[in-house]
Amino acid sequence: MELKNMGDLIINGVGASNGGKFQLVTLNGHGTVNSDIECSDFECNGSGTVKGDVKANTAKISGNASFKGTIDSQQVTVEGTAKIEKNLYAKHLYVSGKASVGGKVKSEEINLHGILAVGEDCEAEIFKGKYRFTIGGLLNADQVDVELYGECKAKEIGGQTITVKQHKGSFIGTLFKPFFKTQLETDFIEGDIIELENTIAKVVRGNQVKIGPNCHIGVVEYTEEFSQDKNAVVGESKKV
Amino acid sequence: MSEELISKKDLLDLAGISYGQLYRWKRKDLIPEEWFIRKSTFTGQETFFPKEKILERIDKIQTMKENLSLDALADMFSPNISDLQMEKDDLIKRNIVSAAVMNFYLENDKSGLTFHFPRILEVYVLEKLLQSGEINLDEGKMVLQVLKDNAPLIKQKSCELVIFRKLGVSSCLLLINTEAVHFESGTKLVVSLSLMTCMEEIKSKLL
Fold first, then answer.
1. Could you give the ipTM of this predicted complex?
2. Which residue range forms the structural domain that includes residue A56?
3. For A115, which of A211, B3, B90, B170 is 20 to 30 Å away at the CA?
């Protein structure tokens, strides 16, 4: 795709555009794009709305952006609030603000330091989740690395290495602890190497399973190794 | 056409693969979403697969992944039509179509000697059916017409081509995402051909 010779679309203040192909798209202030855009770099600093799909090399959302379509970009950074009604495809996804996706997320590497809400499945090679996430479908990643700061939910989790750790809380954290549940809630966890803390799950299946403190697990099925912390509740564990 | 199902656990045992591999293949779209069948069991929800299809697919993946990257494999299994173009002579040289069938096809289709994927599929289906002797040339024309009329559908969905005869009169139809077909007893089912499988066969011949 040749975007080198395309013009830029810059909206400062209140403005609207009908979309198209651009080199650089910047929405500062209150910008609206009424249909699909294809560009090299997309940036939204104010409150922007795109009523179509976005195809870009890099997309950076620092303000408040809402997308009625799908985002397809190599690099997506969300530092503000992004609401995507359909799917999000990104090679690298970095969220330090809040991102909500109505459809599914497909990525190679997801780095989460904020809040991520996904309606359907979330797929990545590497998923690093800090703080909070809610996934309506399956969280499928080769490496799932979760550090719990708040309440996290996923319908199912599957992958090769799955690690869930409780964040070592600060002093203020312990003061407010009764108000926040720091736990991961899920129906299924399936993987080769599983290490859990503060997790509530109905079924955990894996080769090497290590259940840490504050877990409530219905059934653990393992093939090689199994260990359980004394502060964990496991309904049943069987070697298969 | 109700299929035997296999649970995820049994599948992993039987195929000797790990959860990690299964989920990786799923991510790469090597295993289609429709094959993940959720059913509730006494332990909660379990995932099942159509046994024959999944074992065949896993076997294919395992034998081919030594030579090809997972992404290349994904392209091969995906029903999306590649933007591939080939010349008439190439197709004959690569044993996708015999010269006789190619001539028959070109008599009925005058849109040139360059073949894009939908046309390769058409000619390949004809080749398969005519060479096996299951249909005659007139029926070949009929099949061709069905395939041409429904080309946009074939691109996206998993289609099945069904040819049947009754009292010597033949007809054919295209099924899209169907579970089963039943005929009345006087009807003879000549052939039922999955176009998805045909596409995979073509792709594996091209690679």
1. 0.79
2. 1-103
3. A211
